[in-house]
Amino acid sequence: MDSYLKALSESKYCPLWHDQDVRPEPLPPLSGDEQCELLIVGGGFTGLWAALQAKEREPDLDIILIESTFVGDGASGRNGGMLAKSLAHGETNTDYHFPNESDRLEELGNINYDEFVASIERYGLDARFEETGFMDVATRDYQVESFRKHYEEKVENGSNVTWYEEDEIQQEVHSPTYKAGLYLRDRGAIVDPARLCWSLKKTLLGLGVRIFEGTKMVRFGVHGSGMKTDCSAGSIQSEKILMGTNAFPSPMRKIRNSVIPVWDYQLATEPLTPAQMESVGWENRSGMGDIDHMFHYYRLTQDNRITWGGGGSVCYYYGSRTDQGVADPKDRFEGLSNSFFKTFPQLEGVKFTHRWSGIIASSTRFCMVPGVAYDGRVAWAVGYTGLGVGASRFGARVGLELLGYQPSDILELQFVKSKAMNWPPEPARWIGVTMTRHAMTKADTNYGKKGPWLKLMDRLNLGFQC
What we know:
Layout: H1 3-6, E1 12-13, E2 32-41, H2 45-57, E3 63-66, E4 82-84, H3 91-97, H4 102-123, E5 134-138, H5 143-156, E6 161-164, H6 166-172, E7 180-184, E8 188-190, H7 193-206, E9 210-212, E10 217-223, E11 226-231, E12 234-243, H8 253-258, E13 260-269, H9 274-280, E14 287-290, E15 296-300, E16 306-310, H10 330-343, E17 352-362, E18 369-373, E19 378-382, H11 388-402, H12 414-417, H13 428-445, H14 452-459
Parallel strand pairs: 1-17, 2-3, 2-12, 3-9, 5-14, 12-19
Antiparallel strand pairs: 4-8, 5-7, 6-7, 10-11, 11-12, 13-16, 13-17, 14-15, 15-16, 18-19
């Protein structure tokens, strides 16, 4: 058996973040009828941050939050735990889709990040927060020149960045695949995403928010001057609703058409020994990623495991599948294991203890899509496209302000007001996404040169610009 296959042989299908003694017992589901002023649907980052910010703005606000499974079960408890400052999925994507608002969105991203960190301190959130910054690495010779230009632009803009030549980056983090590196010291941090969700849950309960887990929204509609939501075992009458369902099926057509569920897969190693850690280096403990179109992202945990995700494992399944039938595909995890040991061959013999998957909500503009309907009684923020750990907090703010809770000038941003192009129906949806995925993989192996399909996507303003 190949060593990369053997490394997977004893892994269990379970998110590393969920497999912890601090995981709380689920709260009882809704049973009967309830009333509140604000109903929040979804127990992930968007819903949890929305409830907290709503309480901060109006402490007496009566809030109910419902979650179909348990808090932190979706993408919010399954991601890489990388907290970035960007609200629109990176500078390139921001400039591409919102060229006249780049500076303002950068400012708001910095404010959002600072408020995120302040909330961790104020409420004592157990997020295992480490302000490490991020390290991007070039792994192909042709990438180095453009990567260096990117570094020079950042220096001109006053960013706190460090450039590493090939020998320097390999001394910093010991991988023979690295050709150059760019360390962005003030770009972000890493967190334990599930612990963050569970700490927010505990905080909200202490602030008087009622939370019902195991409670699925079935339908909702206008009821008098407010809304009525039918759930799996009861109903909730509310004045307003904030939807934080992200990639999961929504009763609202506008939400369903604006995002698609893209599956991503991750692995986690056993804790590395001191000798293994020395063989890797990585003393700054930064979140890391390569700069391929189909990029890998990885990080260290507090007990010195490495989590590893992305690359060619990312996939969309025909019909916008969100079921568990595609959650544990053998070939995708094998591909991840193989790429891991190509990056860190000195770790041969290390075993993976956990493998898991999660669903990314991707919009056609590759960042958050907000909206409001029912005469201002229902709002949403979805579609973070894999960079939602920090942006979801801002999305929650946008949703609240769209509902009328202390609205500000952010509602005048095109980032908020403009409508994202809907995804086409099947089979065009699957064909388009699959062709794009294959074209991006081909570009990575063809000196970064985009073929006709990717050039067409760029002309249609649908190119992945991150």
